[in-house]
Amino acid sequence: MSGFTQHFHTAPDGIRTAYRRYDAGQSGKLPVICLHGLTRNSRDFEEVSPRVATMGHTVIAVDVRGRGLSDRGAPPDSYNPEVYVNDVLGLLKSEGISKVISLGTSMGGIMTMILAAKRPELLAGALINDIGPELDPAGLDRIAGYVGRTTSAFENWHEAAEAIRAVNGDAFPDETGEDFWLAFARRTCRELESGRVELDYDPAIAEPFRQPDRALPPDMWPLYDALAPVPLVVVRGAISDLLSHESLKKMKARHPDFTGVEIPRVGHAPLLTEPPARAAIDGLLARVG
Predict the structure, then answer these.
(1) Alpha-carbon distance 143 to 170, whole Å?
(2) How far is 162 from 276, CA to CA, in rounded Å?
(3) Residue 268: DSSP 8-state
């Protein structure tokens, strides 16, 4: 199974959130929601989602507002995880989903923690990818240095791939082939009618990172602790600059049903297609699905 149907949910403020639905039929297994990172979209899970669906789980892969096929937000202060979570709760309600397993990468992991705090009965299990309640300032500085900075389009897909590699190359030091970076670009960019290529997100999502206190996020430990009732898998890129190994150890100490997985030679954030990550997803679904 690789196909999906495209859907939209309209929030009370009129913004439509797009999502892909990979239907697994009447298997009786819990659905899975896939939540992407800051500048990404549902295509980040284009390999993960169909594989999970073949295991009998209907998958909802979201384009958070301001990304992918979702509407751009107005005003820009609608770009924050609390708003995104409300959008997700709305679309889950429209789908008739009252219990779900969450796979959240980076910002999507923060959204998963907020979901657990707002709706503790909703989550049956969770995987959060290269994120936690403590964020390394080095990683925050790196993100602030690129998000929203590129506002002009690239001439072609090759140029887009080179630009994506310039930003993300340190996180994937072993990926030297052009095919990898072209695929990466196609997940993160879109082609215009002119044939030029642009990043597939609203540059205004960068506004929160331009605030003076951007390197001092609020205390997210209470949000993390809201995940305590459910099995939790945390994936970390072994060379991540956003989630430190020390933070991973703290997270393990505070959660009663914790599985930690580190992906060698990968930074922020693993693609979840790596063999250890695939095995972690399979193990979580086997337990709670």
Answers:
(1) 13
(2) 28
(3) S
Cβ proximity of 197 and 191 under 8 Å: yes
Please name the residues in contact with 204: beta carbons below 8 A apart, sequence gap of 6 or more.
66, 72, 73, 76, 79, 148
**Whats the size of the chain, residue-wise?**
289
Average pLDDT over residues 79-85: 93
Neighbours of 284 (CB within 10 A): 22
Residue from 186, 279, 274 nearest 237 by CA: 274
Global pTM reads: 0.96
Within the chain, what is the greatest distance between any pair of CA atoms?
53
Angstrom distance (rounded) from CA 168 to CA 165:
5
In this structure, the number of other CB atoms found within 10 A of the CB of residue 63 comes to: 24
Determine whether 270 is exposed, middle or buried from the number of CB atoms within 10 Å of its CB (0-12, 13-18, 19+). Answer: buried
Q: How confident is the model at residue 211 (pLDDT cuts 50, 70, 90)?
A: low
